[in-house]
Design a protein that fits this description.
mainly alpha, Fumarate Reductase Iron-sulfur Protein, Chain B, domain 2, three-stranded antiparallel β-sheet, binds iron/sulfur cluster
């Protein structure tokens, strides 16, 4: 018997209960089952081992989780039972140390589910017009295409011009200023390695197609000896 089943009594002819009732309480569990990466949550037998080993739970105690399920298992089961509408901060309240996974007798990979749920929270809670979501989508679009990536490099070189001073960017505007407030950012170089490589190939004597390779080797050797 696990905590999901309560077997109280049975049918007895002539004496005692005459009817057999099965009451199934779903309470959001079908939704958990539908999520392939998170459905292992339902393997839990409520032994409590992950709670006792969790450094976060040991510091905060059970009430911090705001539901009857606390500790690492609570951090993954509660948001899912509540259709990711409440308790969304719980998957983030973990150092992902993995102690819960190590002690779990049914080997629920709680850190893996925590990361998966963090992704769901971000995807489901943020509007399409959220600046961070927009920035990430744009970055994904650029990084998945070589043509777009190279175009962005060229554009970046032009756009950075008013911000660069002696090869460094020290005062970026707006939100980006949070970065340069505490550290300097090197300006984009005037030529990327790939551009340099193409140029060398173009300038190489026609009889020696491996000339750029020899040149690169010579540079590497010079650098290591220097
Ligand atoms: S250790 Fe595993 S089985 Fe035990 S309560 Fe935590 S998740 Fe559930």
């Amino acid at each position: 018997m696990n905590p999901y089943n309560s077997l109280w009594t049975g049918v007895r002819p002539g004496d005692g209960p005459q009817h057999f009732h099965v009451v199934l309480l779903d309470n959001g569990r079908t939704g958990i089952l539908a999520d392939e990466e998170a459905r292992q949550t339902l393997h839990c037998i409520r032994c409590g081992a992950c709670l006792n080993t969790c450094p976060v739970y040991r510091q905060t105690g059970g009430h911090a989780y705001g539901s009857s399920y606390s500790g690492p298992i609570g951090a993954i089961v509660t948001p899912q039972l509540l259709q990711m509408r409440h308790g969304q901060s719980l998957p983030f309240a973990s150092s992902l140390c993995g102690a819960c996974y190590e002690v779990c007798p049914v080997k629920i990979n709680i850190p893996e589910v925590l990361i998966h749920l963090r992704g769901r929270v971000v995807r489901e809670q943020k509007s399409a017009l959220d600046p961070e979501a927009l920035a990430m989508k744009t970055a994904a679009m650029i990084f998945t295409s070589r043509t777009r990536f190279e175009a962005a490099q060229r554009l970046g070189r032009i756009a950075q011009w008013p911000l660069v001073s002696h090869g460094w960017m020290r005062n970026l505007p707006g939100m980006l200023g949070n970065w340069t407030r505490v550290r300097d950012l090197r300006a984009l170089p005037s030529q990327t390695f790939r551009e340099w490589w193409k140029q060398r190939a173009k300038n190489a004597p026609s009889g020696d197609p491996a000339a750029p390779l020899h040149a690169a080797r010579r540079i590497a050797e010079d650098t290591s000896h220097g």
